[in-house]
Amino acid sequence: MISTENFRERAHALVDQLADHLEAQSSSDSKCISYQTPAESYAFWEKFSGDEKALYKAVLERSISVHHPGYIGHQVSVPSTEGILASWVSDVLNNGSAVYEMGMAANAIERRVSKEMARTFGLPNTATGVFTSGGSLANLTAMLAARAAKAPGIAGEKLCVLVSDQAHYCIDRAVRIMGWGAEGIIEIATDEEFRVSASGLDHALKVAAQRGRQPIALVGMACTTSTGTYDDLELLSAFAKTHNLWFHVDAAHGGVACFSESEKKKVRGIEQADTITLDAHKMMRVPALTTLLLYKDEVASYRTFSQKADYLWDEAGPEWYHSGQRTIECTKLMMGMRVLAVTMGDGMASLGKYVEAQYQLARAFAKTLSEREDWEVATEPMSNIVCFRQIPSDETEVDSFNLSIRERLLQDGRWYVVSTRLRGTFWLRVTLMNAETSLASLMEMIAFAENQR
């Protein structure tokens, strides 16, 4: 049995330690990352010894800080106080939710939150959803649902999925896991703005026919990981309906546009989707991993994993209060509670304003760069993602020149910037996730890069 007094004392000490860490992130001399090579990091931890406080101190000092305004790298949220505290409650309870008794609160909250999110996306009253650990697992589950609905009993080597050539790699991975092989993915060529086009869709159908594959699903991106580009979901939903395809929207990052009056036009057509992936641990300020997979038709969520488990439940569904009937996972965290905690009160309105601010900042940053003679952006940003690069004034190769910029930024530590390759060309890439990041701080980063030539 845990000693409550001991727990209280140590938890209070940890709160103070974490609060001091968060406070330090706003100091002018703080760093987002103190980079160590993999070998250096392992050498330190291999020899580490110390008490609990020393352990946490070392972890905080040797990890990247997503709360730092210079964290503009990967698509990982800056978790809010509400999301963090809800995670603590989940960890203390340690309830699984495959069966009702182990997840009485968790399953009921999951149903409430999924229905609320479904309404936000414009899905019908038949819609519901399930939480799962990450967008990769949600997208795999969506593909399994597509197969169960459109091709039950058909061998995988005869099937395929149509998806943007800018899609996240987890879609390809899902198809391979399902045993369809590399030929099971038909990439749809995108236009100069990295969006799926009507001609690209028609060509993909021809490729599928040439391979002797039957398309059963079409995946729309809202938005892409590399450039933050939204597909025309109305175009895709109409195409899917015409060709009897399961329409899945990977809205892991950009589905939050639905929360904003000014941005939600970017996801018109998402209400026609059969399934939607939404990562709350990206733009909803919820700790990872917290992903919601929405189904337009609740019945489809039970068809995906139709099987009997006598030691868990009497029937194999449909029983919403046994989440194990609808997910790969059996034991999982109380993910829905995290989202409920963040969205209660004026949380949804606050999230909408946050999304708008980050999207506006991305546009302002891209515009400022475009006006500078030696910088360019890959495409006008549609979300909070900007791909950009500097054009060297001499004969230096552009890719290696910009790679060296990223390396210098990494060593400096005040900004964390990542990169991507767009049609074979190297670009610097930022994802603006922190409400404390400003245009002034971004331009300070640009000035640093220019002065390091």
Give a verbal description of the structure:
This protein is 42% helix and 13% strand. It has 453 residues and is an alpha/beta fold. The chain folds into 2 domains: 4-65, no CATH class; 87-346, 3-Layer(aba) Sandwich (Aspartate Aminotransferase, domain 2). Helix 1 (4-24) runs parallel beside helix 3 (52-61), helix 4 runs antiparallel to helix 12 (335-343) and helix 6 (135-150) packs across helix 7. The protein is globular, with a radius of gyration of 23 Å. The chain starts with a helix and ends with a helix. Residues 309-313 have low confidence and may be disordered.
In CATH terms, what is the architecture of the largest domain? Answer: 3-Layer(aba) Sandwich
Percentage beta strand? 5-15%
CATH superfamily of the largest domain: Type I PLP-dependent aspartate aminotransferase-like (Major domain)
What sort of overall outline do the alpha carbons produce when their principal axes are compared? globular
CATH class of the largest domain, named Alpha Beta
**Residue share in helix:** 40-55%
Total number of beta strands: 11
Radius of gyration: 23 Å
What is the count of distinct domains? 2
Strand order of the largest sheet: 1-7-6-5-4-2-3
Output the number of helix runs. 15
Structural class: alpha/beta
Weakly predicted, low-confidence segments: 309-313
Would you tell me the overall average pLDDT? 94
Instruction: Return the string of H and E elements.
Output: HHHHHEHEHEHEHEEHEHHHEEHEEH
Quick one: biggest sheet?
7 strands, mixed
First-to-last CA distance: 60 Å
Q: Which fold name fills CATH's third level, the topology of the largest domain?
A: Aspartate Aminotransferase, domain 2
